Amino acid sequence: MEGGAAASTPAALPYYVAFSQLLGLTLVSMTGAWLGLYRGGIAWESDLQFNAHPLCMVIGLVFLQGDALLVYRVFRNEAKRTTKVLHGLLHVFALVIALVGLVAVFDYHRRKGYADLYSLHSWCGILVFVLYLVQWLVGFSFFLFPGAPFSLRSRYRPQHIFFGATIFLLSVGTALLGLKEALLFNLGDKYSAFEPEGILANVLGLLLACFGGAVLYILTRADWKRPSQAEEQALSMDFKTLTEGDSPGSQ
Amino acid sequence: MEGGAAASTPAALPYYVAFSQLLGLTLVSMTGAWLGLYRGGIAWESDLQFNAHPLCMVIGLVFLQGDALLVYRVFRNEAKRTTKVLHGLLHVFALVIALVGLVAVFDYHRRKGYADLYSLHSWCGILVFVLYLVQWLVGFSFFLFPGAPFSLRSRYRPQHIFFGATIFLLSVGTALLGLKEALLFNLGDKYSAFEPEGILANVLGLLLACFGGAVLYILTRADWKRPSQAEEQALSMDFKTLTEGDSPGSQ
C-alpha cells in the first residue's frame, strides 16, 4: 500500500458495504430456507434437482456477481493488480456456480420431459449467461492478459463498467422472474390466499431488488470511486511519454 | 440559447436517443398489439378493463418515465429552467397515466372479487408508485419550488439522480413481472408449447429490458452529461461569493 492520501476510505462506505453483505447473506439463507421448508430441500439425483437451480443462481449470479463488482470499492487501497485478480476470480466462481445451476434445470427438464427455453425467464436467463461469459472473456483479454495497449484499455473501461452493472441488474431481474414463475407454477390459486410460502417468497423478491439497489448505490457514488494510485499514475505517465514524446516531468 | 461552447451536442448522442425512442414506441405499440390480438382489446366498463392496466403502465411508468430522465441529455443546450419544467411535466403525465392503470386493476379486482396485493408484482408495483410519487414531491420542492438553498440542492442532486434511475429500473422490472404473471395465468400449459402469444410477449419482455438498458446507457455516459451553462456558472459563482466572501473574479 503506497500513496498516503490514497489510503483514506470514505467514512460511510464500510457501513453501506456491511449492509449490502447483510442483505446478500440474508438472500442466500432465505432462498435456502424457502427451498428447505416448502420445496423439500435439494438433491441431485431426484426431482429435488430442480431446487439446485434457484440456489445456485442466487449465490452465483446475484450474490457473488454483486460482490465481484464491489471489489474495487472495498479494496480501494490495495494494489490494482491484486484487486483485478480478485474481481476476475469472484466472477469465475459466479460463472461456475451459475453453470451448475443451468445444468441442474436442463437435466431436470430432460428427465421430466419438460420443454426447454419457452419462458421469458429462460430467455432472459440464457441472455444473461451468454453476456456474462462474453463480458468475462473480453474483460480478461483487455485487463488481465498482458498486451492490450493502455489506450484501448482506457477506451474499453467505461463500456466494461456499464455492461458489468447492466448484466448484474438483468441477473437480478431474471431471478425475480424465476421466483415469480416458481410461485405461480406451484402455489396456483393458493398464492392469492396469502399462503406463508407466497409471503416468504415475496419478501425474498423485495430483498433481491434491495440487494441490486444497494450494490448499484455503492458503485455509482462518485466520491466512493477507487482513487487513482501512484503506480497507475506512473504507468499513465509512461504511456503519455511514449505516445506524446513528452518527459514525465513536463506533465 | 447562450454560451457557444456549451451548444455542441456529442455526435453519437442523437442516434442513441433515436434508437431509444424507436424501442420505446415499439414497446407501446407491441403492448397494444398483444392486448388487441390476444386479449380482446381494451374497454373500461367490462372484463376488458384489466387490459388498461398493462397499457397504462408501459406508457406511463416505462416509456414516459424513461423519456423524462432523458430530457437533460436531449435538451442539453436549452435553458436549465425550461428543461427542468419539461422533466417535471413528463413525470406528472407518467404519474397520472400510471394512476389510471392502478385504478383499472383495483376496480377490475373489486368487480371480479379477486384478492388485491398478494403477488410479488403487486408489492413491487405499489412500492414503485409510492417511491415515484415521493421522488416527484421531493424533487419539486427542492428544484422547482423557489426557496431551497443552493447548497441543499447541490447535496440532494446526486441522490435525486440515483433514486430516479433506480425507480425507473424497478418500474421496468415490475412490468416484466406483470407480463410474466399475465402469461402464466392465461396461457398455462400452452406457454410451454411455444404459442404465438407466448413468443410475442417474450419478445415484448426483452424489448422492455432493452429500453431500460438504452435509457441507462444514455444517462450514464460521462461525456454526454449536460454541460454546466453560463447562467448556472454565474449562479454558482454568486453563491460562492456569498458563502466564501470571494469576488467572482478571484475564481
Structural overview:
Two copies of one chain form a homodimer. Chain A has 251 residues and is mostly helical. The first copy, chain A, has one domain: Four Helix Bundle (Hemerythrin (Met), subunit A). Chain A contains seven helices and no strands. In chain A, helix 2 packs parallel to helix 6. Chains A and B meet through helix 4, helix 5 and helix 6 of A and helix 4, helix 5 and helix 6 of B.
Write a brief caption for the model.
With 251 residues, chain A is mainly α. Helices cover 74% and strands 0% of the residues of chain A. The longest helix of chain A is centred in the C-terminal third of the chain and has 38 residues, at 150-187.
Give the class of chain A from helix and strand content and strand pairing: mainly alpha
State the separation between the terminal residues of chain A, measured CA to CA: 24 Å
Strand content of chain A: under 5%
Share of helix of chain A, binned = over 70%
- What name is given to the CATH topology of chain A? Four Helix Bundle (Hemerythrin (Met), subunit A)
Q: CATH architecture of chain A, please? A: Up-down Bundle
Instruction: Assign the CATH class of chain A.
Output: Mainly Alpha
Q: Largest interface, per-chain counts?
A: A-B, 40 and 40 residues
Report the oligomer: homodimer
Q: What is the 3D shape of chain A?
A: globular
Number of strands of chain A: 0
